[in-house]
Task: inverse folding
C-alpha cells in the first residue's frame, strides 16, 4: 500500500531540539512479521536515516520503507511505501539547521501514517513548544520520546504522554572510558543556571565542582533582563514642561515608593579550584560557541591543563567548528540527536556518542507495554 501526501512549505519560525560498550540484543524476540510495529525516518538527511538504521538494527527489525524529499518549490513530499494498518508506528526525526522543513516532514509523515490506519504514532524529536505540541497532536501523534529537553516543563504542553530520555549515562561513560586520568578532572558549570546539571555529573563521578559567575562585558540581553531598569534617563509625561520626580508618584496621597537599584553582574570569576585539573564543562546544548570559548580561556588562565565540553545536542551553528578549532578547547563531545557530520569534517575536536541504544529500548518497551522506569535508573531530575 502506497500513501503519498503533499504538504505546503511552512514559512513560520519555531525556536529549537565512540558508542557505549554495552548493547541489547532483541533479534531473538522480534522480527518484522510478528513485531506489530514499524520504525520510520521522517528526515530527508543522511544523518537521520543513519540514526534510524542504528535503532532498527538494535531492535532487530527493518527500517520502514518511505521516501521524504523536497520538490524544487520546497514543498515537502512523503511517500509511505508499505502497509501500516493496525501497527504501532515510531517516527525518528532529528532537527537540522532547516527547522521549518524538519517540522513539516514530521507533521506530513504523521498525517500520512494516521490516514493509513496506523494504530498509534510515536514521534521522537528534538524540538517542542506549545504550538508545535498542538500541531503534532492534530497530525495524529499519540506519544512522543524526547532527549534532554532544554526545559523539562515543556512536557506539560502536550496532551499525550512524553518520555524525556537522558543522555547523561552515555556522556558519563565517555568521560570514564575516553578521558585519560579523569579522576583528576573537575566538572564546570559555565553559568549558575547550569550548576544543578554540573552537580549531578560531579556527584556521580565523585569529582569536584566549579561554577563560572559573572560576565565579561555588557551584552544585548541586559536590556531584556531588566539590568538597566529603571532607565537612567528620566522620562517626562506627555505634557511639555512637566517632569516627574525620580521617586514614583504615589498611587495614593502620602505614599512614596522606594528607589529601585539597577541590577549588575560582577566580572567573571571561577568559584572552585581548577588549577592543575582537567576541566569538563557540561551543558544540554552547544550552538553558538562564543561563551564556551570564553569560558575555556578563563579556565586556562586559572590553570586547567585540558578542557572538554560535554553536551547532548550539538547544533554547532555558524562558525562554531572554526572557533572551536582555534580555541583552548581540547574536545567537544555531543550525541547524535542532531546531524553534525559536516561540522566534524571541519573540526576534528568534535566527537560523537551514539544514543541509539536507549531510543531502541524505549521503542521496545512502549510497544510491549513495559515500564519505562528502567531507563531512568540513577537519573536525577537535574540531568
Result:
Amino acid at each position: 500500500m502506497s500513501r503519498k501526501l503533499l504538504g505546503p512549505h511552512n514559512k513560520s519560525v519555531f525556536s529549537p531540539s565512540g558508542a557505549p560498550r554495552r548493547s541489547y540484543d532483541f533479534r531473538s524476540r522480534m522480527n518484522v512479521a510478528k513485531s506489530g510495529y514499524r520504525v520510520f525516518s521522517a528526515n530527508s538527511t543522511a544523518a537521520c536515516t543513519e540514526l534510524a538504521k542504528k535503532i532498527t538494527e538494535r531492535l532487530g527489525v527493518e527500517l520502514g520503507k518511505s521516501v521524504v524529499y523536497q520538490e524544487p518549490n520546497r514543498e515537502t513530499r512523503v511517500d509511505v511505501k508499505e502497509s501500516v494498518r493496525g501497527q504501532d508506528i515510531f517516527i525518528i526525526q532529528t532537527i537540522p539547521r532547516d527547522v521549518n522543513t524538519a517540522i513539516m516532514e514530521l507533521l506530513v509523515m504523521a498525517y500520512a501514517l494516521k490516514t493509513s490506519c496506523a494504530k498509534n504514532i510515536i514521534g521522537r524529536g528534538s524540538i517542542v513548544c506549545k504550538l508545535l505540541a498542538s500541531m503534532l497532536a492534530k497530525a495524529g501523534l499519540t506519544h512522543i520520546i524526547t532527549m534532554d529537553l532544554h526545559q523539562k516543563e515543556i512536557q506539560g504542553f502536550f496532551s499525550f504522554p512524553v518520555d524525556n530520555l537522558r543522555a547523561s549515562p552515555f556522556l558519563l561513560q565517555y568521560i570514564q572510558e575516553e578521558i585519560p586520568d579523569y579522576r583528576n578532572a573537575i566538572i564546570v558549570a559555565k553559568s549558575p543556571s547550569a550548576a544543578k546539571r554540573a552537580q549531578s555529573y560531579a556527584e556521580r563521578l565523585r569529582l569536584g565542582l566549579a561554577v563560572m559567575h559573572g560576565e565579561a562585558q555588557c551584552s544585548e540581553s541586559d536590556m531584556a533582563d531588566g539590568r538597566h531598569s529603571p532607565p537612567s534617563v528620566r522620562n517626562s509625561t506627555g505634557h511639555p514642561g512637566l517632569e516627574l520626580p525620580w521617586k514614583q508618584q504615589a498611587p495614593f496621597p502620602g505614599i512614596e515608593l522606594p528607589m529601585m537599584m539597577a541590577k549588575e553582574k560582577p566580572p567573571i570569576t571561577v568559584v572552585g579550584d581548577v588549577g592543575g585539573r582537567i576541566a569538563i564543562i557540561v551543558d544540554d546544548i552547544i550552538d553558538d560557541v562564543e561563551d564556551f570559548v570564553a569560558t575555556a580561556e578563563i579556565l586556562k588562565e586559572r590553570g586547567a591543563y585540558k578542557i572538554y565540553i560535554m553536551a547532548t545536542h550539538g547544533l554547532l551553528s555558524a562558525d562554531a567548528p572554526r572557533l572551536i578549532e582555534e580555541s583552548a578547547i581540547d574536545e567537544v563531545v555531543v550525541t547524535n540527536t542532531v546531524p553534525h557530520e559536516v561540522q566534524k569534517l571541519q573540526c576534528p575536536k568534535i566527537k560523537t556518542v551514539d544514543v541509539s541504544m536507549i531510543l531502541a529500548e524505549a521503542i521496545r518497551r512502549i510497544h510491549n507495554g513495559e515500564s519505562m522506569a528502567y531507563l531512568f535508573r540513577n537519573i536525577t531530575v537535574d540531568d
User: Anything to note?
Assistant: Residues 99-114 form the longest helix (16 residues). Confidence is low (pLDDT under 50) at residues 1-34, 218-223, 233-238. The longest strand covers residues 278-286.
